[in-house]
Amino acid sequence: MLTKFKKNIRKIPVVSGLAKLVYDWRQEKRLRKKVAGFLAAGSLPYASIAPPQYTVGYEPTIRCNLRCKMCYQGQTRALRRSELGTDEVMEIFEKLKRKTATIKLVGGEPMVRDDILKLLNFWYKNNTRTILQTNCTLINANNIKTIKQLTNITDVLTSLDGPPELHDVIRGVPGAFDKLKQAIELLKKSRPDIPITVFATILPWDNLDDLLRLIDVVKGLGLGTLNLIFEQVYSAEEVRAAKNVFTNIFGWSEDNYRLNTQVKESFFPVGFSAAKFKNKLKEARFYGLKKGCFVN
Questions:
Q1: Which label site among 136, 141, 194, 223 has the fewest CB atoms less than 10 Å from its CB?
Q2: Does domain 46-231+266-295 have CATH number 3.30.1950.10?
Q3: pTM (2 decimals)?
């Protein structure tokens, strides 16, 4: 009876919201404790069958200067205000460097950290290949001078979701496209050796009908490839299935991981069909070929 009562209570929006706040706070506290353990230990807890070197995915911050409408991190960003300080990060880097062949910085937006160039410089000094994933709005005439010197940065990944006005709407900040364009121009001038990979998140109700215009914009920026990706949406049932895999196959408790994803039921606009979707993608690929832009 008590269990049934708890389940019914959790269906009340205000109560379920408070319960999520408490849950996320506890998870954050556990993660901080685990990180403190990493810092106190002599080495990181690598698995016994760990390879000689890794490609490391590193999230310097959950913070971001944009408000993208499809961002799956938005649900937890307000709760994750704390982040490791420079000294803590450097301490972990020291323990990671022997095992790191490549490090990829993702976000949030890495460039919002005041110490991001210092963190990047650590891997430059260790001659470690570095991939920077950024929305490019914070790369400017000042920091490009340092980025130019960090020759270990071998790739820049960024996002462009439509023509200028539509990109700004999807990214939630006016002027986002202009700053992206400026950053790409600075990168191409200062580091022409760095390939700039552009991803577009397809939102069927927002930008599907503008793919051809988007291809023109990509070509106008002097780029030759456009990678199409889809909004990362998972239902509550899919999240439960993932947790079951972690528990039953990997033997993990919820203290060992955090699922940072967008939980909602997927849907398509009224009148939308899979056939239309397929035809739009096919049309974009053929148009890209004619324009000299490979649409992946």
A1: 141
A2: no
A3: 0.82
